[in-house]
Amino acid sequence: MDTSRYADLFLTESQEHLSAINHALLELERAPDSAEPVNALFRAVHTMKGMSATMGYVQVAELAHELETLLDTLRTGAREVSAEIIDALFTSADALEVAVGLSVAGREGEIDVASPLARLRAVQGTAAAQASGVGGQGSAPNRRTSTAFVVPDASEWAAAVPPGAGLLVRVAIATDAPLRGVRAFMVVQALRAIGTVEAMVPPLDEMKEEKFGADFALRVVTEQTPAQVKQLVAGLGDVSGVEVSQGSGAGGQGSGAGAQGSGVGGQGSAAAPNGNGNGASGNGDAARTNRNVRIDLRRLDNLMNLIGELVITRGRLTQLSATLGDGALDETVTQASRLISDLQDEIMTSRMVPVWQVFDRFPRLVRDSARTLGKNIDFTIEGKEIELDRSLLDEIGDPVVHLLRTAIDHGIETPEERKRLGKPAEGRLRLEAMRDRSAIVIRVSDDGKGIDRDRVLQKARDAGLVEAGRSELSDDELIRLISRPGFSTAERVTDISGRGVGIDAVQTRVRALGGLVEIRSVPLQGTTVTVRLPLTLAIVRALLARVDGELYALPMTHVNETVELKSAQLRQVKGREVLVLRDDVLPLLRMRELLGLAATDRKAQQVIVIEMGERRAGLIVDELAGQQEIVVKQFDGVRGGLALFSGATILGDGAPALIVDVSSLL
What we know:
Among the domains are: 3-124, HPT domain (Four Helix Bundle (Hemerythrin (Met), subunit A)), CATH 1.20.120; 167-245, Alpha-Beta Plaits; 353-452 and 497-534, 2-Layer Sandwich (Heat Shock Protein 90), CATH 3.30.565.10; 539-664, CATH 2.40.50.180. 41% of the residues lie in helices and 23% in strands. It contains 22 helices and 23 strands.
């Protein structure tokens, strides 16, 4: 079987291990005397070595092996953690990530691991001894390491014993490993590379379909010794137990496991995949069954599209039922509607993922950027467990990167500047996520120097963006200016920022996602940038409003209330029409005016109070047409004259309606 079919799985799991490696490195840098970061690094690198060797990605395996060798010296106390070692580990982790990407893309000829290998060997002071490297295809897992592999104690294995001569190999896969069938296949492929696999229990087809507990057995004819075979299999990803013995049975004396200090002693075959000491019965297999699966996001997208069509059909059925007035039909439609809602909730929930899947890469970004600029930064993340629709999460990563880089470069001062201002030498940078009703709020805040309003104003005067005589800027004007494409107050361009694309890129991306960006800055105290996003873009509840006979939809997440317009509530403030609503004075917008339509003389008009974050306004429409759950269809490409709208939908009666982009109004 071609291992390339598992390339996507390898990439996904490698990215998880690389994320764990970066986090452990950051922790090791903060606490070089702690053993846990070193152990975490060793586990992740060891797993990647086994995975890549099984896939045939030799250069990835070679680099991972050299990393593992250095980490083992730290684990055993043969070397102490130093700044030189930390830098070498960070550099090698970056090289490992590049090598993984190129290997999966089939561009292994472009991989160059010579430099990181040389640096690792130089740090160890064993360049000559390590120069042989991983010789070629399949050799990486056979290279000796100092890893002590211990088979757990238990009375028996669950898998049967394949009869016949050769080596009997029993293997246990970690109980929490995803896609155990793939792991089993990787073991089979590794053994085929060194000999002939003549029998296996259960059969390979059943293993591929994961019709086994967590362990299996194979009979292998090979020139390798039991100890060599054991070392090979033990080095593969997510293998939690292995035993190798001579002959046709598992009960022979002097098995590979017993001879290697496995803790089995003279029992030979007494090894099991778990450490519960009670063997592995059928019930144990059931208990070990992994209840998680990986699924391609495109499948969830397709399911979401189908749910969207069901929601539209439900709306049509509801209207048809109301028209016909049939009791039996009403009851059936109500039941179908409830089932569709439950199905919709389940599909939408399955698309929600915690934001840490994106946020976890930011500590490394902050660390590297701060070092480049010579700044000390204490970076904290809060709310990593908050969940967001996967499609939105993928889109929000780049805007957050822009905000973090801007805070590091423009906001937080150098240690010398901070001491001169009476601040701690170490700046504080905070990234947090939280739920706010049916929206998610992502906030980036720093305790730096804040936005220099005078400098922004001067730059704006020089560019002709404000009148020459202006002496101050409002908050809204400040945001509009620093959000303009190419606008920057930086005196120099760095690799991190200064080209005037940061806040502009954030605004553009967030607006496209139906969100809003708010900026609050206090001179010498810091800046806070708040991004508000809907939890999902697919299906939302909307308020329908009619203007000049046409229907428009406004997401209920941005509707505070509706009131009937009365002339006594209207005022003029600084030449602008406002609405006095109880104790609030709200800016007033007329939908007809926004659409370029003539004013109406109808007396009964409605005001929809729209809000987004701290911003509110009143929107005047001709009449309200109720609420409805709608399927959002976003526009493709440039919207042109449709800038007022974020998308369109099909209503229950089959009529189209444009969805108002509330963020553009506020």
